[in-house]
């Protein structure tokens, strides 16, 4: 799984495609990063990530709600945005519940209007926190209703990607956490894990594609903002890379690696006698993890020996090994990441959690290998 994506890869993959993004403020950040990526390789700024309901963002426009209506943090808040270019169309709907009267109107828009090629959906935190004590059970029922309804409306070749909610912090604060439900903050991170499990099982039962963002970012918590909910621009670019790679795999398209593209550019420019003048976009630094003073560095992942201990009375499956091995002699597999004192600004490339169902009727109008 690639950890970066370029503008040329995104524009080629989504050429003449209609992408719909539905969800909360984190999904709005995904929409904004995708819109920015279709135009430039730059990253989102903090004011761009923080703002909501603005009239225009990077050549898109506000269709409904937001500053066109009364700004609020209630469950009736609406925001519909759309970015339209010559060969790209991306639309965003803000959701506070996975299925409601407002969702019915959205499905009617999709049914009567232009048919989407990709739908990216996520709805969890608002569902399980703002609708009473039985909100989790209602969330489970609404998932079945929504998946059943959307399958009957969108075309069979439409790719529907269900994003699992990202990890929450132990102390959270946000617009959705009004004083009436502030007592749920300490346990909300655990409720999200339970809701993610159920939504994952339900989405797989309805033959949806699943992207487990909670798994991918479980060891990249240094990219989470101080409010415990939102994420920085590096994390959103990583999400865009995961989504576009998932879409490419579903369509049977192979995206060329970024280093090979850069090497081809250098070779072609050297052959022409040209000097490269464009610079790579400045990479913003994430918030480093804090360590207590006068203490040893805390490792986020504890090392484990590569094999379990032998049980007496059972024949060994492999030649016996020593259980206690000096730490400097242990060779950990690539999946383990140990963070330094100052924090790690990279991401782990791991796609074992991704569930893909490549149906026979899925197609893509371009060559298998995209430049």
TrEMBL record:
Residues 264-311 are annotated as: Disordered. Gene3D superfamilies: SGNH hydrolase. InterPro entries: SGNH_hydro_sf. Transmembrane segments: none annotated. It comes from the Eukaryota. SUPFAM superfamilies: SGNH hydrolase. Belongs to the PC-esterase family. PANTHER family: FAMILY WITH SEQUENCE SIMILARITY 113 (PTHR14469:SF0), SARCOMA ANTIGEN NY-SAR-23 (PTHR14469). This is PC-esterase domain-containing protein 1A isoform X2.
